[in-house]
Design goal:
By secondary structure, the chain is an alpha+beta fold. It folds into two domains: 3-60; 76-177, H-NOX domain (Alpha-Beta Complex). The chain is 51% helix and 16% strand. It has seven helices and four strands, in the order ααααααββαββ. The protein has a four-stranded antiparallel sheet. The longest helix is centred in the middle third of the chain and has 19 residues, at 63-81. The chain is globular, with a radius of gyration of 16 Å. Residues 1-2, 4-5, 78-79, 82, 85-86, 99, 103-104, 107, 111, 114-117, 135, 137, 139, 142-143, 146-147, 150 line the site of protoporphyrin IX containing FE.
Length: 178
């Protein structure tokens, strides 16, 4: 997993709680690198699972809730660092339509080893979309947070439902703009 995801996660803990809290989480996660991340490095996904696991214990929130909150926060970080990849987008559904074929493609050019999920548009109207998400990491709550934060970025709000499909590691988001 790309370092910017880890550095953003730690930034979130520092900002939303405190730098001491972030240090405690890192220490309790007993990471080989002691939580020394650079934005352009790559680190095992297992380290993110450990960090989230510690946070579950400390906060009493579920991993899914925490991943959602982190997704919401992460969009701001990614948008700040890579605002240019959003330059050609005008609204949330158009952005999601081009996530797989454009935005994450640009990301892959910048970070060739990025391990990106796959998205497929199943249907689309002016105000609705059915979007299929595939990732062995099954980070659908992270995607939900990213989508809701993206909606805010485009000054709109979404109604969403998430369903797991019979295909392994695959989920469907039914999205409508309200
Ligand atoms: C500013 C726009 C965006 C940028 C620059 C961006 C970039 C990235 C990057 C760098 C990663 C990490 C890859 C790795 O760990 O190797 C990532 C992962 C991910 N992105 Fe995006 N992303 C953007 C928007 C979105 C949006 C709106 C969604 C929501 C559907 C999304 C869904 C995901 C998910 C779920 C992952 C986690 C990897 C996984 O599921 O296996 N991204 N993205």
């Amino acid at each position: 997993m790309l370092g910017i995801v880890f550095t953003s996660f730690i930034d979130m803990l520092e900002e939303k709680v405190s730098p001491d809290f972030a240090d405690d989480v890192i220490m309790e996660a007993e990471l080989e690198n002691d939580g020394a991340y650079t934005a352009v490095g790559y680190y095992p996904f297992e380290q993110m699972e450990r960090l989230v696991g510690v946070l579950v214990e400390k906060t009493g929130k579920s991993a899914n809730e925490l991943l959602y909150d982190f997704g919401y926060y992460l969009f701001g970080k990614l948008g700040a660092v890579h605002g240019d990849v959003l330059a050609n987008t005008t609204d949330i559904l158009q952005m999601l339509e081009h996530l797989d074929s454009d935005i994450h493609v640009q990301v892959k050019k910048l970070y060739p080893d990025a391990d990106l999920p796959r998205f497929k548009v199943l249907s689309r109207t002016d105000t609705t979309m059915r979007l299929q998400y595939y990732s062995e990491r099954e980070l659908y709550p992270l995607a939900e947070g990213l989508m809701d934060a993206a909606a805010e970025y485009y000054n709109c709000q979404l109604e969403r439902e998430t369903h797991q499909l019979d295909i392994p590691h695959t989920y469907e988001f039914s999205i409508s703009i309200v």
